[in-house]
Amino acid sequence: MQRIASLDRKDMNAEQARAWDAATQDPDAPRGGPYPVYLRLPKLFEAMQRLRACLAGGPLSTSERQIVNLTVARAWDAPYPWFAQVRRSRAAGIPQAVIDAINARRTPDLPDARQRTCHAVARDLLADKGLKDAVYAEAEKTMGLEDLVALVAATGNFSMTCLTAVAFQVTPPTDNLTPLKE
After folding, report:
1. How far is it, in rounded angstroms, from Cα 100 to Cα 72?
2. What is the average pLDDT value for the chain, to the nearest integer?
3. What are phi and psi of 79, to 5 degrees?
4. How far is residue 23 CA from its own chain's centroid?
5. CA 62 – CA 39 distance, rounded (Å)
6. Is residue 75 within 8 Å of residue 127, measured between CB atoms?
7. Element (H, E) at 117
8. 56 close to 26: Cβ distance less than 8 angstroms
9. What is the pLDDT of residues 116-136, one digit of tens each?
10. CA 153, CA 174: separation in Å to the nearest integer?
11. Closest Cα to residue 150, out of 112, 117, 106, 108?
12. Domains and CATH numbers, the chain
């Protein structure tokens, strides 16, 4: 059970209502999962919306961001973010076999070098709390420095999303087709 109930619009203070109303005007702005938790601090809610939009408009492709998000959600054992990212990944054309491999904590078969690098960097950052010199060198060679910065930022940003969802026990709907494996 979620530890913090979502606020009804009528129960929001003026700043919360202003931030929520602005988010509802943007069809791409997330409003589910941990975002209602962030709404308790409207400036954080807005900052998370801006950071998400910044990263979405950055150098990583949609499929690269999805590989990162799946890898991060799996690393944090975060059910709601996993649910949401599986849905987004399918819409972005990520094969079910890739989703299943990440869910099983296996290295997915990714023919694209950038996607392989996105998975390896996100996985290693979270598992090893850093990048070994060889992994960093290969990532910089494959991604380029600016794209590697975006990759690390995406990993950190989605880690915050997952940590929030886990801490406040934000759960996916019961019709979750690809739950996290135990």
Report:
1. 14
2. 94
3. -60, -45
4. 18
5. 26
6. yes
7. helix 113-128
8. no
9. 999 999 999 999 999 999 999
10. 31
11. 117
12. 9-56 (no CATH), 62-165 (1.20.1290.10)
